[in-house]
Specification:
heterodimer; A: 86 residues; mainly alpha; 2 helices; elongated; B: 200 residues; Ferritin
Chain lengths: 86, 200
């Protein structure tokens, strides 16, 4: 994994993988026996977990349970996602 | 239940304030075809949906609509946060500004507050799913109209993403309608509401 990612690049990468999972979820809701879609789902799920771990260690929590406690209450310190574009 | 994720479904970074664009995009926050109505429609209909697969689909799409509501709020915020008083007056945002400053409030483009009268939940799977398919098409039309009124790529890009999602949701609801129809055929009770009275 390229460690040169900026916060914006890594966040966009995670959003893209998460979007693939949202789309696969809806598809599997109406095509529950599609083996190819199910395989893609687990592949992207693993990708999401790896990328999220990297994001959390570099830039802070995505969800509240990502707060490790070592750096204080980071949930309340990192920017909100709607602040972008300044 | 839900837990908050500190990420938008699709990135939004709008650099240029635009009062006129904010006014029309606000309609997808609290208007008749907007994301607030979409989320409440599906998340309310799910309870009476007799087919567990379709109830799950309503829950998943309703959840995604809440993420879209956050995207629309983000867009209106980024379009309005740096407006000068002159821009607010020139852009026709003064009537909204008088009551809400640059806060985000669920109303349509002409200021009518959001109303539950714009959604339905009738506890009949075919009626509810037909409403959902129509709702996705109406939201798609609203996004088409917004794209005719706006040309800043920072705005158009996320709006096009949201427009595409309406089309995917329409497709999934159509498939869900097929699932319900298949089940109705099994017992041959097309003419009756299969959700009430409850069948074991």
């Amino acid at each position: 994994m390229n460690m040169e990612f900026t916060e914006e690049q890594l966040s966009n990468e995670i959003a893209a993988v998460r979007f693939a999972l949202i789309e696969l979820t809806l598809f599997l809701d109406t095509h529950p026996c599609d083996a190819q879609a199910l395989a893609l789902f687990t592949e992207y799920r693993d990708k999401l977990l790896a990328l999220s771990e990297q994001y959390v260690s570099l830039f802070g929590p995505l969800e509240v349970y990502d707060v490790s406690g070592k750096n204080g209450w980071t949930w309340g310190l990192t920017p909100m996602p709607f602040e972008g574009g300044r | 239940m839900w837990e908050y994720l500190k990420q938008l479904e699709y990135p939004i970074r709008i650099r240029k304030p635009d009062a006129r664009a904010a006014k029309v995009i606000l309609s997808q926050y609290g208007g008749p075809n907007g994301e607030l109505g979409a989320s409440l429609r599906y998340l309310s209909q799910k309870f009476a949906m007799p087919d567990r697969r379709v109830a799950g689909l309503l829950n998943d799409i309703g959840t995604e609509e809440l993420a879209h509501l956050e995207m629309i709020g983000t867009m209106v915020r980024q379009l309005t946060r740096n407006l000068t008083i002159e821009q607010i007056k020139e852009g026709g945002f003064d009537a909204y500004f008088a009551d809400h400053t640059t806060g985000i409030w669920p109303a349509n483009a002409s200021g009518m507050p959001w109303s539950a009268a714009t959604i339905q939940s009738v506890g009949d799977p075919l009626a509810d799913l037909a409403e959902d398919m129509a709702a996705e098409q109406k939201a798609r039309v609203t996004y088409d109209n917004i794209l005719k009124l706006v040309d800043d790529p920072d705005i158009c890009d996320p709006i096009r993403f949201l427009r595409e999602r309406e089309i995917v949701h329409f497709q999934r609801f159509g498939e869900a309608m097929g699932m319900i129809r298949d089940k109705l055929n099994e017992k041959n009770f097309y003419a009756f509401n299969p959700a009430y009275p409850p069948r074991k």
